Amino acid sequence: MRKDEGIHERLADRLASMLTKLNMGQHLDVRMLSEEFNVSSRTILRDFDRLGASIPLLKDEHNKKYYLHENYLGKVTAKDIVKFAEISGIRDLYPSLDMSFLRELLNSRADQIYTTQAYSVEDASQFTEIFKLAGNAIRGHKQIEFLYKGVRKCVQPYRLIHHHGNWYLAAVFEKKLKAYRLSRIELLPHQSDGDIFIVDSAILSQLEAEETIWFGQKKIEIILTAHADVAEHFQARTLLPEQKIIKLLEDGGLLLSSQITHTTQIFPLVRYWIPHLKIISPEKLQDEMEQEVKKYFGI
């Protein structure tokens, strides 16, 4: 790389970083920027001159900091992007969501570097009206009505929850918190404003504490072993409900624990990892699952 090419790349990176910060509403100090980029204050002042030629850059005469006119601030900030990632459950998909990585990720050529595959979720575009209805009702603490599996329900909605690729509405029906899968909800032709309900703090606490959509049901502990050939997968990420690694076995395998409320939470996972994952306790669950497999194959 020629010397002038390196200088231009550093200038472009510096200007991009400064513009990103300005777009986020930050007030920039010349001295702090010169220290951050290891350049002179005169260089930073020239950078501001370049930026000021194309954007409405302002200077606070009291503290000498530069900032962008509020009418030109970006509508979405880095904090908004991070919050969206956290709500969507994809925060841990990336090694970092700091400003430099976001700038790289949102670059027009990012798809040449990053690709997400085998991330299976249902098509949520079909839920536009349900999202709107439920969202307004949750904010206004109002009851809503709909058909669920053909049965009319009047519920107190608390939260929209994305769980294992599917969307659910967490709502109180007949004084019990339940999860209604959005794909099974049928909206009524004419929606009227529902009655206002008093938010129950106990329900909110329950929602914060639960890691599944099986609300209020008693959990049982499952003990499993994972073979050494697949142990690294269970060490790298949580593949079982409320998974915990009890210990590393002498043969390189793992002894695991999981908390479930229904066998449908664990059986499909064990079947997927056959023959490398096995239920040790309760033994009857392993027997039950083996019988299902034998029945499927006609054994």
Automatic annotation (TrEMBL):
InterPro entries membership: CBASS_pafABC_assoc_protein (IPR051534), DeoR_HTH (IPR001034), WCX_dom (IPR057727), WH-like_DNA-bd_sf (IPR036388), WYL_dom (IPR026881)
Positions of the HTH deoR-type domain: 14-57
Domain of life, source organism: Bacteria
Domain WYL: 130-186
Signal peptide as annotated in the record: none
Lineage: Bacteria, Pseudomonadati, Pseudomonadota, Gammaproteobacteria, Moraxellales
Keyword Cytoplasm: no
Keyword Cell division part of the UniProt annotation: no
Organism from which the protein derives: Acinetobacter wuhouensis
Name of the protein this chain belongs to: WYL domain-containing protein
UniProt-listed PANTHER family: PROTEIN PAFC, PTHR34580
Any one GO molecular-function label of the UniProt entry: DNA-binding transcription factor activity
Keywords recorded for this protein, A-Z: Transcription, Transcription regulation
Limits of the WCX domain: 220-295
A Pfam family hit: HTH_DeoR
